[in-house]
Amino acid sequence: MLKPVITTLFAIFGISTIVSAQSDLAQEVGIILGPVVFQSDYGQRNDFDTNVGNVGFGVGVVHFLNFSANNNRENFFTEHFKVRSELSFNTTKLEHFGEWVEREKVKNLVQHLRAMHGTSTLVNLGAQLEYSPFMKIHAFENTIGGVSPYVSLGFQVSYYSTKIDSRIGTLGLPQTTFYKYLTPSDGRPYGFSSESGIVASVTAGVGIHYKLTTMSDLMFEARYQGFSSDWVDGLNPNKDLYKENKSNDSQVWFNVGYIMYLEY
């Protein structure tokens, strides 16, 4: 299952190296880390307790191609765009929060939802295009203390591994499993599954670069990642019956990064 991820990794960094060598582009490398808010079928969507409770952590390495370096023919693209490739890892422990958990508690039922818990772990590989609209790259590189906001758009391929369990017994039985997860869904015998697989995603972010020294920056970013599958969290109730679970899984990563410029 990891073969597509490894192949894509070599392809992205291989292309980056070839392009850089042929075009004499500047390169930057760095590390990013921070909390990840997982938005899934656990809990209630857009619920504060769910968003606060299902927070994980991510860390990654990033590589930038800077097109403005050694370029005497300055143009809009080279002065406002960078290509960023990334390899990252994040993991999140998942619990049910929100209205349905409280409703089950009030009815004094067996605590199916409160007992259900899981973990989702992802290894992400991808690339994105960063656009800095307000400050030219050359001007930013020569302004220590300068701030350059940016927006980004890209894609990722992820290897995910999800595990799901219950504190009151084996899942798949009426005595231990909330009713809507007992219905077959999307080729699985139930609306839950502990599994591993490959999933694609789109990313969109907003952030700032802060010029720390001549050869280093700080980066602050909030980034949305929307997956092409609804099994990344291990839950996917039958969408024909349960319309409230129609959205695929997604996550928002708030990260801070330290970026170094490479000399060559």
What does this structure look like?
The protein is an alpha+beta fold. The chain has six helices and eight strands, in the order H-E-H-E-H-E-H-H-E-H-E-E-E-E. The protein has one domain: Porin (Beta Barrel), CATH 2.40.160. Helix content is 19%, strand content 45%.
Give the tally of structural domains: 1
Distance between the termini: 36 Å
In sequence order, what are the helices and strands, one letter per element? HEHEHEHHEHEEEE
Q: How much helical structure, as a percent, in the residues?
A: 10-25%
Question: What's the arrangement of strands in the largest beta sheet?
Answer: 1-2-3-4-5-6-7-8
- As a whole number of angstroms, the C-alpha radius of gyration is 22 Å
List the helices and strands and how they pair.
Elements (H helix, E strand, L loop, with lengths): L2 H21 L2 E14 L8 H6 L1 E12 L9 H5 E15 L3 H8 L5 H4 E16 L5 H5 L5 E20 L28 E19 L2 E12 L22 E12 L3
